[in-house]
Every structure is written in structure tokens, then in C-alpha cells.
Amino acid sequence: MKRLNAGLFPALALFIAFVMANVLPSVHTGKGKVSAVQPLPVVGSFENFKVLLSNVQQTSTSVDNGMMRKSMAPSTATDGAAQQAGEAAADYSTTNVQVEGVDEADVVKTDGKYIYQVNNQRVVMAEAYPAAEMKINTILEFEKNFTPTELYVDKDRLVVIGNRPDIYPPIRIQNTVKTIIFDITDKKNIKKLRETELEGNYVSSRKIGSAIYLVANKNIDYYYILQQKSGDFTPAYRDTVGQDKFVNVPYTAIRYFPNMVEPNYLLVAGLDLASPDKKMEVSTYLGSGQNIFASQENLYVGVTQYETNGDSPRPGTGIMAPSILPMPESIPKTNSVVYKFKLEQGQVKYTARGEVPGTVLNQFSMDEYKGNFRVATTKGEIWRKDENTSKNNVYILDGEMKTIGKLEDIAPGEKIYSVRFMGDRGYMVTFQTVDPLFVIDLQDPKAPAILGALKIPGYSDYLHPYDENHIIGFGKDTVELSQKDWGGNEVGKMAFYQGMKIALFDVSDVSNPVEMFKETIGDRGTDSELLRNHKALLFAKDKNLLAFPVTVMEIQNKEVEYNGIPAYGQFTFQGAYVYNLDLKTGFTLKGRITHLSQEDSLKSGHDWYGSSKNVNRVLYIGNTLYTLSNDKILANDLNTLKEENSLEITQ
Q1: Residue 36 predicted with pLDDT over 80
Q2: Owning domain of residue 611
Q3: Residue 18 pLDDT exceeds 90
Q4: E strands of 253-329, at which residues?
């Protein structure tokens, strides 16, 4: 970690009294102990803000203009049933989330009677149960400069989250994260109750009980700011509860992380749907966030920090392959910094900061268990063949975010493709040419250890628990082929991905994990949103049900590989694959459901691009399976998959 310029300290001294007066309260660590929280210093003034920015290293975290890589992997469904009043079905699927009790926003939700869908610039509310009486109830239209992206449903409240760009004088704002809350008690008379906005780009959100937490990033043009003599270059927010206008966060309310100043603002906001008259709380930090993980008590915001010297390539500049550019003598050193916040009924309080080597892939690389935080990272580069080659690690931090255990240097030369923490165990998939599935013992947080490993072709992008001794992997099959130079000499081997692969792993014998069953869908080019977003999965263990959307590409007439590279398939299907899954017979394809007509298929040609008829979510209500696209909601019998009804959505 590089130190701040010595010229900073006179400015900081001016604010010591203020900082000491703003010490955050003590918090519970999760183990029944109470520890004092180290306070964060405040920015305090424009002058001090400039001093801080002047010390920002050229190697500060790359945030790609504020648009963070969203968590892979995460739509529909856990297998828990919920009792609902009125005519709603007692059994329906919910969004597939990482942590029980911590809801995640998605493009589709259901309450057991109605389906709520983000559909282009609108939200469609369809009365879906019973299926025979399915109809559109309401279509919520929005102003042209608001784009809804995700939503939550909370009893009689609908929460729509989206982006609103280009707000002009009196306050010029480039982009905001906007939340609109509706009263849906009377489905025929939907009422807008409240709006909130945060300046910046949407990172993610979580809902715990009636409380919603939003995380946003706002870029800072620090080159421009350093040339100014005064100004409010702070993020703004708006809440129609109270003043219905944008208010800038004052410098005295913005905190920063010593030795970790970045040209970005991290905003963490909380609001409680059960307290409609309570204002949204906004905490602002000089920093940024990329991936978030939330337990029912804490929020963790992770960001990658780069440290380089003058000879090293800058991150985010598009480093070319080593065969084209000479390999640099050194590479950026990457660390993952994780900020911990206490969550309590819409209130957010910073409690601790931790740092570990390497980069975090997505939200599933992070976890909280028995008061400790676990995180998996990849350090180095897969194309290096020296001491800087990629290595994978697991770190365990205590309630104060201090490292107490570590397991390093796993699978050198490979990188993490997926991780899943499950109680006292962890599962990690790395990949270069084959897929090692590592089973990791986390029972002793101070001494994590590898229990066993399985090496098979292919890789898993997402791991989902089946039960405590079995786990499902979703990814791609691969084939390893020899590569030759221009003279025809073999120069090594390379793995090429093939069709989509789903597999069930038995980890009962932790020292000898076994791939019990596997299924391959299509050929090279086959794809599914599930490989990038876990929310696209419907899984109900008690129903032996597994379903997800997929676009299938298949090789026609056994096309010949070109120059040793496997051929891509031709488009043959888009829709939902529905499986039965159990431990005796494995994956049994129950059927396929598409929204494309025969005419659509005939028009498709060799490739397939985005279509309003593409199925993107699958859910169930009672004994009916629903597939959703922007054009249609299709209802099929859950047991036979016989079509029960079809509902066209007017565009």
C-alpha cells in the first residue's frame, strides 16, 4: 500500500477535532462481543478534497467510467413455499438468491397470484393465477428518460429500480439510480407513493425484511476539479419524503479511507418500506465498489485496487496478448479491498475494512459464516509462465476484517471460474484446459485446507447447492486440441468451449468428489443467461424441478473443424429447458418450451440475435409453469408441460 503525500497531514490535522466528534458507535461483531469501531476521517472541505485528490495515484482502481461488472451468475427461484392471503397460490417460486432471507432485485417477481415484469421501458403486471384466467392487469409506463432495470415486490409495495440520465440545471447530473415505490394494494388503482434518486451508476441492491439497500458509484473528474478554486463537486440525492429536490452531500458528511483515496464516490443508501415517512439515509465515501455481498446483518462492498510502477501496464487499457506485445517485466499488483457495513432496518453504518491479495470474481466469491468473512481471489495472470502466473486463494477474516486464516497458491496457471461457500465447506472451480473442482475444508477458520479435487473436461460458471453433499454445476463443456505453428509443428494444447454443460457432483466423500451425472446441451455457441446471472435459474428440489432459458446452437452435417478450431453450431432453439433431477437418475429432460413460432424458426438463419420472443425467466405458481419473454407469458402444466394458456403482451 502506497502512503499518502506528506503534504496531506497539515490539512488532516485541521479536522482531528471534527473526526473525534464523529466516532461511529460500537457494533456487535456477530460473536456476542462489542468492539469500538475505528472512525473514518471526513473530507471536510473543498480545499481538503483537492488535497486528497492530488494524492490519487495514476494506478487507482479502474472503474470503467463507473459501469461496474455486474455479478455473474446472478432469477428465479428457491424451492420454499410461502402462504399468501386472498386467491394467491400457497406454493410459488421466488428469486434464486445467494443468502436465505436476503432478497435480490430481478426483472421478474411473483407474489403467487400476479407476475411483475420489467418489459422494455415499462413494468407489466399480469394476473397469472389461475392460469386459465390469465390477463394483463396494469402496464406501468414511465417518463422517456427513465429506464427500469429491476424490481422488488413486498406485500402491497412494488419497488422499481432504474437509471435516469442527463439531469440539467439547476444541478447538472449525468446519471442517477432512481427508485419508484408504488402502492399495489388495489391492483386496479396503482398509486405512486415515493421516489428516490442517487447520483451515480447502479452497482447492486439487496432487500432484507422491509428494508432496501442500494449501492451506487459516481465518477469524479479530478483533473478538472484540481484546476478549480471552489465548488460543490459532491454527489447529490433526492427523496420525495421531505424536500423533493436534489441536495448535494456536504463535504463534512463525506468520509474517506486513509491510504485508499480513489477518484470515485461510493454511495450506500437505505430506506424502510415499513416507515414510509422516514427519509432515505445516504452514506457517502471517497472510494468505489464493484461487487457486493450481504448477509442479514452486514453488507460487504468489494473493489479491486491496482498498484503499478511506471513500467507496468495500466489496468483497463486493453493489454494485448503476449504473442503480440512483449511481456512486461512487472505487472500490476492487485488487491481486493472489502468495506463492511452494519445493516439495521434501513440504516447503514461503516464498521471495518479488510484487504487481501488478488481479485474477486463476483458476489459468490464472498461469504459470511459464524461472524467471519470468507473470500476467494485470483492473483497474477494466466498467460504468465513465471512467478507471476495466476494462483488462487481463500482468505478468512474475523469480525473486524483482520485475516485469521488463508489457503494460497491453488491451481497455478489457472483462474477462478466459480465459487460457492456452503457452511463448513467451500467449492472452487478453476480452469485453463480442464476443470478442477476443489473441495475446501473451512471448519477451522484459522486453517482452511483442500480436502479433495476432481479434474474433468469443461468448467462451471455457476455452482448451486442440491443438498449438503451434492452440488450442481452450470457451465461449458470443452475439448482440448493440439495447436500448430505456421510450419506445422505442435506448439502446445488449447481448450475450446463446446455446448452448455450441467453436472451433478457428489461430495459425500470429500477426498474423492465424483461427477455423478452430466448433460450437454447443443454445440459450440450454445449459451444461457444462467452462466452470467444466477437469477435465471429455477430450482425446486422437492419437485425434482430444474429449468432455465437457453439458446441452442447445433452443428449440422458434422461440419469439419477449421484449422484445428472446432466449428460453431447453427441456431436451432431458444426457450426454456425443463428437467427432472434426482440422485437416482440424474438429469431427465422433461421438455422444451419456446415462444418462437415455426415461422420465426424458419426465418432465423444460421445465427440468432436478440428477440422480444426470447424466454428469459421461468417460474411456477401452484401446478403451473410460466415462461416469460417480452412478447408473451406462456403457462404450461407443471407435470405434463401441456400448454394451459398464453398471454400476449402488447408492445
Answers
A1: no
A2: 532-557+566-651
A3: no
A4: 254-256, 264-272, 281-286, 291-294, 298-307
